[in-house]
Amino acid sequence: MTSPKPRVVLGVSAGIAAYKACELLRRLTESGHDVTVVPTADALRFVGEPTWAALSGKPVSPRVWDGVAEVPHVRLGQQADLVFVAPATADLLAKAAHGLADDLLTNTLLTARCPVVFAPAMHTEMWQHPATQANVATLRARGAVVVEPASGRLTGKDTGPGRLPDPAELFEIARHVLARGAGGRDLAGRHVVVSAGGTREAIDPVRFIGNRSSGLQGYALARTAVARGARVTLVSANVALPDPAGAETVPVGSAEEMRKAVVEAAGSADAVVMAAAVADFRPADYRGSKIKKAEGAEPEPIRLVKNPDILAELGASRRPGQVIVGFAAETDDVLANGRAKLARKGCDLLVVNQVGENLTFGRPDNAATVLGADGSATEVPRGAKEALAEVVWDLVSARLEGPPSGVRQGEGR
Ligand code: CTP
Predict the structure, then answer these.
(1) Which atom of ligand 1 is nearest to the CA of 330?
(2) pTM for the whole thing?
(3) Which end of the chain is more exposed for a tag (fewer CB within 10 A), N or C?
(4) Hey, what domains does the chain have and what are their CATH numbers?
């Protein structure tokens, strides 16, 4: 017997990014999902009913009055394994936050007991307006996943946060949320900070001291945290990967820049995971112009000075209840060195990798031991970097105490 296809309701509200939802729909149907598209009436001004019906292979209506005998306004939500709204306009978010139900999509949102994901798209001013942000906070506190919009060119000439993320990235979120099921949004309402990549310490305008970190593990941590419902700030140093959908990506170059961005974001974070390879040293003197080789002369030595230890600073200055996670790349005496580093840096968890030729850098998989300040050691066998990321979030989630930082007093369910 074949297992039934996961049932997805794809809600589409009236934003010009509705055309990108066609690509998300195609990816979902081609990967074996049973998708019912529920547009709002105005969404059909951007992409018409025949397109949705042809791509999903099902009739499409924004109204509760079609096919009433089947009670679609109740049935669709009750039977869904996932409701994914892309794009979600400011108006749709407001209706969802306040429980309004004047069409098929908003009725479906009220009857759904499965995971719900909103992928907002709108102008920057509308996204940043306190009314929209309050609605987003309410939805997140109730357990919905609200992905951060991407930054870039908007409908007009202006740029800023408000774009619908890439459909391929949205599909990854849908896949993750479906895989984790109804109880999977344990980071809902939480703010987490992840650092990724490798810092570059400038020698002169064209040269730097860097490292081999690809950023894959940090990006996997960001992507999985979004799917578990967290608001994610990803501080990314020199990574050649697409921004993960739903995370706010802050690009940085050097260790100093990373320190500034991480410490600022950590102020409101429930957890900080330092997956980045931060250079321990930087050139003492930055040369403003390119160093030239002088004929016949020996090269000048480059004097190094210590960089700030961001993880140790976070460990020493944490807010009560904040969980701090470090990574350690070791070549020898892996566990003993890891335990010593955990204590020295004052973190709650330390993910210890054995590194060496072809063991970690740039590979899609990883093996590690996660050491806890409580003496625990969790072995993670070699597998996808996303699998290790899920274990890290399981351990972080078990250590989080108190109400999420995103939930302010009086914000109800
Ligand atoms: N880290 C940091 N700031 C630095 C250096 C490292 O925040 N200046 C963080 C990394 O992001 C990582 C952890 O510290 O989470 C471990 O980094 P590692 O370089 O292995 O630690 P070191 O203390 O430099 O140890 P070693 O003596 O092995 O170099």
Answers:
(1) 28
(2) 0.87
(3) N
(4) 7-183 (3.40.50.1950), 191-399 (3.40.50.10300)
